[in-house]
Design goal:
- This protein has 288 residues and is α/β, with parallel strands linked by helices.
- The protein folds into 2 domains: 9-181, Rossmann fold, CATH 3.40.50.720; 192-285, ProC C-terminal domain-like fold, CATH 1.10.3730.
- 49% of the residues lie in helices and 11% in strands.
- The protein has helices at 16-28, 43-51, 84-96, 116-123, 158-171, 184-192, 194-211, 216-236, 242-249, 255-265, 268-285; strands spanning 9-12, 36-39, 74-77, 106-109, 127-132, 142-147, 174-178.
- Strands 2-1-3-4-5-6-7 form a 7-stranded mixed β-sheet, with helices on both faces.
- Strand 1 (9-12), helix 1 and strand 2 (36-39) form a beta-alpha-beta unit.
- It starts with 8 loop residues before the first strand and ends with a helix.
């Protein structure tokens, strides 16, 4: 990317979530590739972003290469939490040399466990909108929690405008839930990590199917379609709770009842509760 490239959206971190949000925004027409700037030290990720048309003039490797920032530039922090301090320090050097009109007024974060106050402190940005998306954002089926900053309640303020922009961008990749920041740890463990629980279940189901004699191809197809169909059914049947839907599949004395009895005996529900509690606690620990 040329050093004079103007950025309306500066994404620092071009990994799975950062790229998913950009692609969703482009597909929905709420972003222009020519106005998106991506910073990532990984050459492979930069090449992928360019190849998929996420950025019109390429991507850059380091924050100091960014230029043409304005007060309207929205900065999205999408780096790994452990990389944030170094990236923020480099960013502070860049914006320190900019006139007031060239300093972004607001930023957003998708980093797990890093409070908005910490992002604000290290980046020198007063308004930070903290969010937590999940992996299905890659296909426009994500769910994202957003923590609206208190300044957003002032009509016409930069915070209010930035919050609208961030919400619109995230709605392009799925549903958005507004939550107070203290609840973001639990949401991270539930929805941020949630897709992994589904994949873990899929792994176990495939392994069980193989033990029962299905081929790898048969087991893989059966598990993928079963989980996909169940998820779509639950989405379309908003009138029925998961408990009610499970009851519809479970006949007294039938195969499903026999299977779920084993899960109940093993404490399946309590295991899931413990797992999400552990994820919540780990998110809290990441605050440092």
């Amino acid at each position: 990317m040329a050093a004079t490239q103007r950025c309306e959206l500066l994404v620092i971190g071009g990994g799975n979530m950062g790229s998913a949000i950009i692609r969703g925004g482009l597909a929905a027409g709420v972003l222009r590739a020519a106005a998106v700037c991506v910073v990532d030290p990984d050459a492979g990720k930069r090449a992928a972003m360019t190849a998929h048309g996420c950025v019109a003039a390429g991507a850059i490797s380091h924050v100091p290469q960014v230029a043409e920032l304005t007060s309207d530039t929205l900065v999205l922090w999408a780096v790994k939490p452990q990389m944030f301090a170094d990236a923020a320090a480099a960013y502070r050097v860049v914006v320190a040399g900019l006139a007031a009109g060239g300093q972004p007024a607001a930023g957003a974060s998708i980093m797990a466990g890093v409070p908005a106050s910490r992002v604000s402190e290290l980046t020198g940005t007063a308004c930070i909108i903290r969010t937590m998306p999940n992996l299905p954002a890659q296909i426009g089926r994500g769910v994202t929690a957003i923590c609206t900053p208190s300044q957003a309640g002032v009509a016409g303020s930069p915070a209010a405008a930035a919050t609208r922009r961030v919400t619109t961008l995230l709605e392009a990749v799925g549903s958005v839930i507004e939550l107070p920041e203290p609840m973001l740890d639990a949401f991270t463990a539930l929805a941020g990590s949630g897709p992994a629980y589904m994949f873990y279940l899929a792994e176990a189901m495939v392994a069980a199917a193989l033990e029962q004699g299905l081929t790898a191809e048969q087991a893989d197809l059966a598990v993928r379609q079963t989980l996909l169909g169940a998820a779509q059914l639950m989405s379309q049947r908003a009138d029925a709770s998961p408990t009610q839907l499970r009851a519809e599949v479970t006949s007294k004395g039938g195969t499903t009842a026999a299977a779920t009895a084993v899960m109940d005996a093993a404490g399946f529900t309590e295991l899931i509760k413990r797992a999400i509690a552990a994820g919540t606690e780990r998110s809290r620990e990441l605050r440092g």
